[in-house]
Amino acid sequence: MSSGATRKHTALPKAQILIEALPWLVRHNGKTVVIKFGGNAMIDEDLKAAFAKDVVFLHHAGLKPVVVHGGGPQISAALDQHGIVSEFKAGLRVTTEDAMDVVRMVLAGQVQRELVGLLNQHGPLAVGLTGEDAHTITATKHQPEIDGELVDIGRVGEITAIDTGAIEALLADGRIPVVSSIARSQDDGHVYNVNADTAAAALAAALDAETLMVLTDVEGLYEDWPHSDEVISRLTATELERLLPDLSSGMVPKMEGCLHAVRNGVTTARVIDGRVQHSILLEIFTDEGIGTMVVPDEHEGEAV
Ligand SMILES: Nc1ncnc2c1ncn2[C@@H]1O[C@H](COP(=O)(O)OP(=O)(O)O)[C@@H](O)[C@H]1O
Ligand SMILES: CC(=O)N[C@@H](CCC(=O)OP(=O)(O)O)C(=O)O
């Protein structure tokens, strides 16, 4: 049996860890953080549960987390079951009308429900919605330019407007919004498939969020991918803009999204490793942030 003095002594390091978080708690109090949880980081059950705990922790620590989720691998698996081949052009899924039904079913009916369920194990907190709800995300048909030609990739949307009303009402009510990246169409009565990184960045900018955090399945933006695993730890908007033409595949919408966010009022945009448990807490409450941080140009040289 341990004495009172010993118990106090062994508990001391815990108190120190808590008190070290004080400056960050003060700095982030009341601030909105948009967290994009990528489909690739969502494959492991323990990671999903740890993610949910981190988000609930942020909520109770006085921040306002908004979750935007992906589901690329989950959509591809479901399309496969339906005998629909997955094809990507310019990093975006070619989405036929039939594929759109599957995308919507998987994102809104499966992935979002699962995240809402995990978050709500900690209390009546999470409310799921898609960009269709209350006109949260409106889009028009996106036609990427490939080799100088506009290409038809089906029901893929380009965001034209964000209405933050529903999300802000949920935040004001002490809830955690969980948003699926599906948009209402401004042209017809249908819906569009939107890349989840792009949706998260647009929401972060429209919500005037302090931070956009993109969780993925790599450590951050590699300097010379796939030849080296040297992570770029900090980039200004202008430095990122110069790098964009050389980026490939999944990193393109992420880094374009980070650039859009910091050019539109978000203080920092970060790409971090969703495979590391509690990476969100490391980013928000310590100096030992991991991954890649993008800052606006005017913050160059300042401590963020
Ligand atoms: N410069 C780069 N640095 C890191 N990853 C890169 C880079 N260029 C391309 N990638 C690829 O981007 C992937 C992440 O994007 P993606 O597969 O769309 O993930 P998510 O499901 O999280 O959105 C990485 O797993 C890696 O294969
Ligand atoms: C247009 C487009 O490509 N939409 C994506 C939406 C999901 C997504 O972005 O998921 P991740 O974040 O896991 O990649 C798709 O259909 O895969």
From TrEMBL:
GO terms for cellular component: cytoplasm. GO terms for biological process: L-arginine biosynthetic process via ornithine. It comes from the Bacteria. Residues 31-273 form the Aspartate/glutamate/uridylate kinase domain. The lineage of its organism: Bacteria, Bacillati, Actinomycetota, Actinomycetes, Kitasatosporales. Catalyzes the ATP-dependent phosphorylation of N-acetyl-L-glutamate. This is Acetylglutamate kinase. Belongs to the acetylglutamate kinase family. ArgB subfamily. Its main location: cytoplasm. It comes from Streptomyces luteogriseus. Its EC number is 2.7.2.8. Pathway: Amino-acid biosynthesis; L-arginine biosynthesis; N(2)-acetyl-L-ornithine from L-glutamate: step 2/4.
